[in-house]
Amino acid sequence: MRQLLLLLPLQIIVSTLGGSLPSTKMSTFDAPIVDILWLGADRRKVLLNTQKGTLYESLDDGRDWEQKSVHSLKVARLIMSAANASTVVAVGFRLEVFASVDAGTTWKEVVHPPGIRLSFMFHPTRANWALLSVWTEDCRLSLPGSPCTHKLLATEDLGAKPLKPISAHVVQFSWGRGDYADTIFYTHIKDKSKRQSILSKWMEGVDFVASTDFGESKTTLVPGGNKFVISEKFILVAQAKDVSAQTVNLKVSTDGSWFRKVGKRLAYVQ
Q1: Residue pLDDT, tens place only, 64-94
Q2: How far is CA 115 from CA 144, 148, 177, 183, 184, in A?
Q3: Where does the Sortilin N-terminal domain lie (predicted)?
């Protein structure tokens, strides 16, 4: 009913202006659509996946559709690079990752450590660079004594070579922006001998760090930095001040290397 109410005024406006409605064609898929992407240099190719994991392809702006296969993968997510509309990643229900650099014509698997949860983040301007993180399989609730950890890895070639390990016990991660876009920023728990816990409050022993060489080395920028936000001009970091009172200092940087204190105490927001 809501869709009808939204469409009806448009029909009235077009009719009043003496124009005609665009031609339409109804397409049927096996389940509701999850993701839909317009790919390629001319954005004429369309890929979508459904809740059942089926991948569909259209070569004419979405008018006609054909089921496609990515190595028999049931596709849970489609992710397109912001740097190149022909570069796309398909993530399976079992966390398999396949990458394509030709708008989905061919696919190659990105091999990564097994896990129970996965995140994938393209570099903002380099289509073949990406960050990938996995919570290891021993993070299941049925394995409470295991050494569960959240691993962060990186690639410069969409997995053509083995992924480069950045850190374990990672809390949060991101590429930089602007002049420091190639820098990997993340927060991590320093003591990696214990099972990693979820950051549900401000914690000691968590640092905000950066790496400019894909994990070969790292620089601690804000000791005690628990969480951060990166914009085009600023990096804001919440630094634990008093964990018993659950207060933090807010640190800010404009160059990605030097941070100064600003603001007031903050309450933890998950």
Answers
A1: 999 999 999 999 999 999 999 999 999 999 9
A2: 15, 10, 29, 25, 22
A3: 54-261
DSSP secondary structure, 75-139, as one string:
EEEEEE-SS-TT-EEEEETT--EEEESSTTSS-EE-----EEEEEEEE-SS-TT-EEEEEEEGGG
Q: Say how far apart CA 132 and CA 77 lie, in whole Å.
A: 14
Give the model confidence (pLDDT) of 149-177 as tens digits. Answer: 999 999 999 999 999 999 999 999 999 99
| 234-237 long-range Cβ contacts below 8 angstroms, 24+ apart | 235/176, 235/185, 235/259, 237/208
Give the gyration radius of the chain's Cα atoms: 22
State the Cα–Cα distance between residues 175 and 100, nearest whole angstrom: 21
Q: Give residue 102's pLDDT.
A: 97
